[in-house]
């Protein structure tokens, strides 16, 4: 097992009398890419600010690399970089913005190659952007420069709050590659809060859900958060224009409550069933990834359905029988009883 970068226990923070974070236990392993999901107001941004030590928790324990938050050395704190949803740039050139963090840390070796590397990683040509002024950048370019100014430091921990908000469709792949490069080449631990669940499913090695400041008490591998529409006595969640799942109105879901489905409660098949059960959800999708879970000798299959990804875990024997592969069209199904809805107190 890898060492833990973060260890949280009974961490609690209130704004006035309202609890915004109440985390019983959370551990983050070195080198993982952790996704934080949840509705607006669930506590994701507050948690990231705590992990960056920009905001102090009121009670409980928060340890980083073995240090308690109250005794964290400055040198160790500088191993952490955070990118906020609306990053602030100095009113200077791109080069000076990227150079600033290195100057603060007193680093003087290989400055120019590192600046070039950081710009290349985020998809900005150094010759074109190095001397461009801050006000000459688009919002997407500003976001990329802000990430480059973090990557140039080769951070041990990188915290990202809604990092793709300002990016257009063409900018997201380069941004993704830059994050994965830091994780793979430098061993950077990455924690990302994002509403882009499809993108997060592609990049994160693990996801956890926040619900009214608390970690959800069930598997969040298949966590679904978003709007539900009402029709008759049912609430419907639309995966795309033609496919949805429904629950009775008696389930108190709402936009601020996610639902989760255990991947082992989902079945996958090549064909749609001739007879459909009323208490079962059937969805058609495309396999994106096939992964052998060596610890349990099972197969993890990630299926894209509309703008969402569901993971299904099957036995290796089942996989050998049907030979599933990426880009294959399949049907997934699960009983409505497998859809877990947290209570407000969960």
| Radius of gyration (Å) | 22 Å
Taken as a percent bin, the fraction of beta residues is 25-35%
- Secondary structure category: alpha+beta
- Biggest sheet overview: 6 strands, mixed
CATH class of the largest domain: Alpha Beta
Q: Remind me, CATH topology of the largest domain?
A: Rossmann fold
Helix-strand topology string: EEEHEEHEHHHHEHEHEEEEEEEEEEEHEE
Identify the overall geometry.
globular
Please give the number of β-strands.
21
What's a concise summary of this model?
By secondary structure, the protein is α+β, with helices and mostly antiparallel strands. The chain has helices at residues 44-51, 74-77, 94-104, 111-121, 126-129, 139-151, 171-186, 197-203, 316-322, and strands at residues 4-15, 18-29, 33-37, 59-64, 67-68, 80-83, 157-161, 189-193, 206-211, 214-215, 223-224, 229-231, 234-238, 244-248, 259-261, 267-269, 280-293, 298-305, 308-315, 329-335, 339-340.
């Amino acid at each position: 097992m890898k060492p833990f970068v973060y260890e949280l226990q009974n961490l609690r923070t209130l704004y006035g009398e309202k609890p915004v974070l109440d985390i019983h236990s959370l551990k983050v392993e070195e080198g993982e890419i952790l996704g934080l999901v949840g509705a607006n107001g669930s506590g994701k941004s507050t948690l990231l600010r705590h992990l960056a030590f920009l905001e102090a928790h009121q009670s409980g324990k928060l340890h980083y690399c073995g240090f308690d938050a109250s005794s964290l050395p400055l040198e160790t704190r500088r191993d952490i970089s955070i990118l906020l949803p609306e990053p602030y740039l100095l009113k200077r050139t791109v080069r000076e913005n990227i150079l600033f963090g290195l100057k603060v840390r007193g680093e003087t070796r290989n400055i120019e190659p590192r600046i070039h590397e950081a710009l290349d990683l985020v998809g900005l040509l150094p010759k074109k952007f190095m001397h461009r002024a801050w006000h000459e950048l688009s919002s997407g370019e500003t976001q990329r420069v802000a990430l480059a100014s973090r990557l140039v430091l080769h951070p041990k921990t990188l915290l990202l709050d809604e990092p793709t908000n300002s990016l257009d469709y063409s900018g997201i792949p380069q941004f993704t590659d830059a994050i994965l490069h830091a994780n793979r080449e430098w061993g950077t631990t990455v924690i990302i809060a994002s509403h882009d669940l499809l993108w997060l499913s592609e990049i994160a090695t693990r996801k956890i859900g926040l619900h009214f400041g608390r970690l959800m008490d069930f598997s969040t591998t298949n966590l679904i958060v978003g709007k539900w529409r009402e029709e008759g006595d049912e609430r419907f969640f639309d995966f795309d224009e033609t496919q949805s799942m429904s629950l009775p109105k008696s389930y108190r879901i709402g936009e601020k409550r996610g639902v989760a489905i255990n991947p082992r409660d989902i079945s996958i098949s090549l064909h749609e069933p001739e007879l459909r059960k009323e208490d079962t959800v059937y969805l058609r999708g495309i396999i994106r990834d096939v992964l052998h879970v060596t610890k349990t000798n099972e197969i993890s299959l990630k299926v894209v359905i509309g703008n969402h990804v569901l993971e299904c875990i099957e036995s290796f024997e089942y996989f050998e029988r049907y030979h599933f592969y990426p880009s294959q069209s399949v049907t997934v199904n699960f009983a409505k009883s497998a859809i877990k809805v947290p209570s407000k107190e969960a």
